[in-house]
Design a protein that fits this description.
Layout (H helix, E strand, L loop, with lengths): L1 H23 L5 H19 L10 H14 L4 H11 L2 H28 L3 H23 L1 H7 L5 H23 L6 H47 L10 E8 L7 E7 L4 E9 L3 H16 L8 H16 L4 E9 L4 E7 L4 E5 L2 E5 L2 E2 L14 E4 L5 E5 L15 H11 L5 H15 L10 E8 L1
Parallel strand pairs: 5-8
Antiparallel strand pairs: 1-11, 2-3, 3-4, 4-5, 5-9, 6-7, 6-10, 10-11
Helix pairs in contact: 1-2, 2-3, 2-4, 2-9, 4-5, 5-6, 6-7, 8-9, 9-10, 10-11
Length: 457
């Protein structure tokens, strides 16, 4: 009766746990898959040896029931150890891996012995001793606070310790009663296992909830960081005489390593800065915020791109700590019809003029390599009505299609040639549309994208 009552219950609990873990698909729920399999296998093993349940099964299964029961004696230990592994650290995790491999070998040999010789009782005796040894090790680790904090990730050690204690006491009493010639009720085995299983499930649930809280905290902090980063970027483009300006900024994640800024001196003169920090996410975003501060130190020499590059390199190289940053700075003076450009390891400036496209490279070293580096060349060029300048980061040219081909400089130049009469904002939208079409629909954005388009009118 105990097998008939508890067997289906444990199977149902196991299948339900696996289904919930599969539906939720949250981080850390894999432990519930192992717990579910553990419970279901335990329940199935109870049913496989039930003299009441077996006659209800098809005849072909009844003939193979002894073999299934023999295999079931070896299977439940695997998900139980895999459940412990999800919470383990360091050497204990390595020990559990070794135990799982050893149990796998024992299970294969034991099943083969039962099929060939009809019994694997002697092997089962040694296997039970082996399992008892590892269980004693795990119980000791859970029971001792210092060991538990070192080798296990447990938000509530006491509940699991209590469950393991009940299971251990029940197993000892059961073995002792057999030794003394008494037969303990089978239901006690099931109750002892239920205490262990539910205490483990409680601890696993606490661990998942703790991870969820940490994830929520991280997401909240990322949201704040995103708002802060938005605040350091220009809220609008400057309105200058004889210039039409558009800026597009598409971060790959919540926060990005791209940065751009405008230094508008008056209605006829302004500087345009684009920078790209190597890497993504929060570290790159922190450095991007440093660039905002560093820009304030070079406002006084905004009309000299070389001095701007040297000043930013001096300030940032002491702060980057090995993180590299590329940058490009364009100074436009419409009153004197002169443009000056300098860069630090950045993609070239594109200049569309009278139906021809020029790639202007005037690069020095990336920021973060040599603090005292000063050899940033400056390229000077005239400005004429109809000129179009493009400053961008490598997120524009590096996206790949399904075949692994990059969008590349040639396709970027093709987009520029195909849309010479578009307004800057419209041109930016067209280019971003081309990038989206180039990438597979299911593929996420592969890099931060920053694009500044400036037309002389």
């Amino acid at each position: 009766m105990a097998d008939i009552i508890f067997g289906p219950v444990f199977v149902f609990i196991g299948l339900t746990a696996c289904a919930i873990a599969g539906i939720s698909q949250r981080s850390g729920t894999r432990i519930f898959v192992w717990l579910g399999i553990w419970s279901a296998l335990y329940g199935a093993s109870q049913l496989s040896r039930s003299l009441v349940f077996l006659p209800l099964l098809p005849r072909w299964f009844q003939s193979s029931a002894p073999y299934a029961s023999a295999v079931m004696t070896f299977l439940p230990v695997f998900p139980s150890m895999l459940s412990f592994r999800e919470l383990s650290l360091g050497k204990l995790r390595f020990l559990l891996h070794a135990f799982i491999l050893a149990e796998l070998a024992i299970g294969v040999v034991g099943s083969a012995l039962f099929i060939i010789a009809g019994s694997s009782a002697r092997l089962m005796f040694y296997d039970q001793l082996f399992r008892a040894g590892i269980f004693i090790v795990l119980t000791s680790v859970v029971a001792v606070p210092r060991l538990c904090s070192k080798y296990l990730v447990l938000p509530d050690r006491g509940v699991l310790a209590a469950g393991m204690l009940v299971f251990t006491v029940e197993a000892l009493c059961n073995n002792l009663s057999h030794t003394l010639g008494y037969k303990a009720p089978r239901a006690l085995d099931d109750l002892g296992f239920a205490c262990l299983l539910f205490s483990f499930a409680y601890v696993a649930l606490q661990s998942v909830l703790a991870n969820e809280r940490r994830l929520f905290s991280v997401e909240r902090e990322l949201s704040v960081a995103c708002e802060i980063q938005k605040s350091i970027l220009p809220s609008s483009v400057p309105e200058l005489e004889h210039l039409r300006i558009s800026a597009a900024y598409r971060p790959m994640t919540a926060v990005a390593g791209d940065f751009y800024d405008f230094i508008a001196v008056d209605q006829n003169r302004a500087g345009f800065l684009v920078a790209d920090v190597c890497g993504h996410g929060v570290p790159a975003a922190l450095i991007a915020s440093m660039i905002k501060v560093a820009v304030q130190t070079v406002v006084g020499c905004a009309n000299d791109p070389g001095a701007v590059m040297r000043g930013l390199n001096r300030v940032l190289s002491r702060l980057l700590r090995g993180q590299l940053t590329s940058a490009a700075y364009l100074w436009l003076d419409t009153e004197n019809r002169r443009a000056e450009y300098s860069a630090a390891g950045h993609p070239p400036l594109l200049l569309w003029r009278q139906g021809e496209l020029e790639r202007i490279e005037s690069n020095g070293l990336l920021f973060g390599i040599m603090p005292e580096y000063e050899a940033y060349p400056v390229c000077t060029m005239p400005i004429a009505p109809g000129d179009r300048f493009l400053l961008y980061t490598d997120g524009v040219t590096e996206p790949e299609n399904a075949n692994g081909e990059s969008f590349g400089d040639k396709r970027l130049e093709q987009v520029v040639r195909c849309h010479p009469s578009c307004q800057p904002a419209e041109f930016s939208d067209r280019l971003l549309d081309e990038l989206r079409l180039w990438q597979p629909p299911s593929s996420p954005q592969q890099d931060d994208i920053t694009l500044i388009v400036i037309d002389a009118v």
